[in-house]
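Standup notes
- DV: blocked on the single-chain target, sequence here:
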Amino acid sequence: MSARSDHAMPAKPGSSQAPPGAARAARAVRPPRLQAEAPVALRVPRAPGAADRARRISGPRIWRILCLCQIDNFSALRRHLGRARAEVLIRDVADRILALCPDVRLTVAGRALLEIGFERDAPEVAADEIDRLCAAFAEPLDIDGEPHQLQLVFGIAAAPAAEEDDVRLAEAAESALEQARAEGRVVLRDLSRADLAFDRLTLMRELPRAIAEGEMFLQYQPKVHVRRQEIASAEALIRWQHPTRGLILPGDFISVAEDAGEIGPLTLWTLRQVIADQRRLAAAGHDFPVFINISGLLLADERFVSEASAIIRESGARIGFEITETSVIRDPESAIRHLRSLAEIGVRLAIDDYGAGLSSLAYLKQLPAAELKIDKMFVLQLTSSNRDPLIVRSTIDLAHALEMEVTAEGVETPSALALLSVMGCDMVQGFLISRPLAIEAFHRFLDEDAHLLSAGTSGASFVMGEGFWKRA
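- DV (later): unblocked, structure below
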């Protein structure tokens, strides 16, 4: 399976795909049309001239489109084609898509997953393009002289170009893909719609019930050690599956939890769930630290630190806390004291989003941190900017001088991975390795050593000599 193919909802964490049958094959032959399901799936106007009418009403506006395309019957095709041929099947899909839509940007995000990025005048124009792709793939694909039917699933997110929240766009696309897989149809989410906005007061009232009734669930994103070519740790990321609103992302409810005084209970729930999941992984031979993001409000909370410390000591789990620089600056005396007490019981501390805030070397040298994470804003343009490589390289040198390991967030391309390797970066995290995965999918990802294939190494070394990359 691909790195995102098992993005599971919490109500069915262990669900797996059934073998492709006649009904699924029929869906592949008759490409599904976009349907509406409020509030998350947009009914796209099908009438001719809809895009022109939209432009006349609201004026010209460019939309950013991110589409995730997954080969739904990848496992069955791998049995027929063999592992080696199946591993490059996604490139055949990419070639056909480029032939039909030459202006799109394609990224291979996994063995069965493709990211398609482009801009259009309106979401309905993008919907027409995806319908055209569905129709094209209704015909069997010629693979080494033999016809094979591919069953593709499409999840799409659309946002006005002025909204430059790449994370929100990506998470909306992956959520649309999950719904598309479950319902056997194309799903498109328009992030500009008013009915997708969340009322903070309503969320405040609903948050305690959501924690108590199991609406929260976790996904895990691995961090790969560049030189050892192995999973060194993982970051736990919390999600809220609302019974009527659908998937609510952390950006919409973490600040609400802080304002409502629920961030402590939410973080303790996360800690207990991470410990339970880590025990399962360790029993299967995958024993490494799992990191939890800690709000700055909690670093000064004596009761939270005491309760979290007791839970960790009793469990014996390998837990890490990720903290931001700004969270320490709020109350440096209490924060540093509590962080030192956590480090003494074996909690590994990582400084998250380094460089995104007002960094203070005075605080940095006092923190008992073992890891520093470079914010992805410097990594995403690492190979296209003149300044970002200088910032990243100097940050790596600084962290090493302070006896910290360095993790680069937002690694999405092999060229960025190669440059980080030359710079001496210790660990990498990002979509090139894997998107965040539900626990069952993450377990399979680890069993298959999928980080090697996801990074495009096909078993080859992550690390190449500096001369190699200069020649390349």
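- Follow-up: The first helix runs from residue 22 to 29.
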